[in-house]
Design brief:
heterodimer, B: alpha+beta, Alpha-Beta Plaits, three-stranded antiparallel β-sheet, elongated
């Protein structure tokens, strides 16, 4: 008869361990943790996606700029740079949002243009590229001078 | 020990019963139920290598939009230069974020082109399979994301990714990678890189919406993916990939 004592103790211990496990599990595992979506790839904290979606988008697109900058937009829209977003030359809207004046980038340097128009082997040959600054207008009477800027002749918003 | 058959059968019966009660208990717990909504792969990313001019605006925009730490890239541009004697060189100075300069080559160039790269948001992502804590997952729209709060930074996923798209963020010490700008897509914008691309070399959109820019391309073009042999089934697809691109 006395052997039953051992068994009861074992069972008690087991029950305590199991209860302890569930308490620890409840405390440690985040609330929304579980399978969301396909079983193989969906095992995660469900709230995570919503948390990540809730972040301000810094780039708001050219449509945002058009609402305030009619002058540049009217030049830009029918021009050859229509595919070039305002924000790719001026940096993102967020910098402009807090303080509507001069916090946005406005770089009129040669490098601004050469980033896209420098002659490179790897560029598609159909893309308008210029080989070297000095040789830009080699076939014309006018030669480019050192210190001259691309924006002296080309309006960045309507280059041609 | 009394090893007769009746005793053995009894013990087996109890074990099976106990086990099944345990499993039922587990599946009744909140959170561990298998959700009814299946993952759908609603979006695709298309990179047209024939249009890319390597200006690096996409890399720059990505870094700003997602505050990517310096010298780490969620998207980057590789320049392949293939000489006539067959040597292939690949370079990506600063991930292409400041554009490219002409290079001096050892011989005449046969062909040269840019290949923008980013997370492929695979259908069967290796990186998700290896995560020991469930910190990286596929959302119900098909985006592969990292749960920053849950990631322990073990970097198994970094090693599992065949595309080298992941890195450990030195500030948060967690895995980091391109999210296809999940927050922007959910708010109705396109990704930051697509929004600044001047030549439409990058396109992103829904695969099931006839208005979307990728819809017709998926229907009409012949597309390739990187490293199809890995079986990851990327949803970032390429137009005009060369055989040398890895």
């Amino acid at each position: 008869m006395k052997h039953y004592n051992h068994i009861i103790r074992c069972i008690l211990l087991l029950v305590i361990v199991v209860i302890g496990f569930f308490i620890a599990r409840g405390a440690l595992v985040p609330e929304s943790f579980g399978v969301h979506g396909t079983y193989t790839y969906g095992y995660h904290r469900g709230d995570s996606a919503a948390e990540q979606a809730d972040r301000y988008a810094l780039y708001q697109g050219s449509t945002k700029c058009i609402t305030c900058h009619a002058e540049q937009s009217l030049l830009w829209q029918p021009g050859r740079h229509a595919a070039v977003s305002c924000e790719s030359c001026h940096g993102n809207w967020q910098a402009h949002n807090n303080n509507t004046s001069a916090t946005i980038e406005k770089d009129n340097s040669v490098e601004t243009c050469m980033l896209c128009h420098r002659k490179l082997n790897a560029r598609p040959s159909t893309f308008p590229q210029i080989p070297e600054f000095g040789r830009h207008l080699a076939d014309q009477d006018e030669q480019l001078q050192q210190g001259m800027l691309c924006v002296d002749c080309h309006d960045p918003h309507d280059p041609m | 020990m009394n090893n007769d058959r009746r005793e053995f059968l009894k013990q087996t019966g109890w074990t099976v019963l106990g086990g099944s009660v345990y499993i039922t208990l587990f599946s009744l717990l909140p959170g561990s139920s298998r959700a009814a909504t299946a993952t759908q792969h609603l979006y695709a990313f298309i990179v047209d290598t024939e249009k890319c001019i390597g200006c690096g605006k996409c890399v720059d925009a990505c870094k700003r939009e997602n505050s990517v730490p310096e010298d780490f890239y969620r998207t980057w541009i590789e320049r392949y230069t293939i000489l006539e004697d067959g040597t292939v060189t690949v370079d990506s100075p600063k991930g292409g974020s400041a554009g490219f300069n002409p290079v001096k080559t050892a011989g005449p160039v046969e062909k040269s082109f840019f290949v923008p790269k980013l997370c492929n948001h695979c259908r069967n992502p290796n990186c998700v399979q290896v995560c020991p804590v469930g910190a990286t997952y596929v959302t119900k729209e098909g985006f592969v994301l990292v749960d920053e709060k849950h990631c322990v930074g073990c970097s198994y996923c970094v090693m599992a990714c065949p595309y080298g798209a992941r890195f450990v963020n030195p500030h948060t010490h967690t895995a980091d990678k391109c999210t296809w700008c999940y927050h922007r897509i959910m708010q109705g914008h396109t990704t930051a890189c697509v929004s600044v691309c001047p030549t439409r070399a990058r396109l992103f959109g829904r695969v099931d919406d006839p208005q979307s820019s990728v819809y017709t391309i998926l229907k009409k073009n012949r597309l390739q993916v990187l490293k199809p042999e890995t079986g990851n089934e990327p949803l970032t697809m390429y137009i005009g990939l060369d055989k040398e691109v890895r």
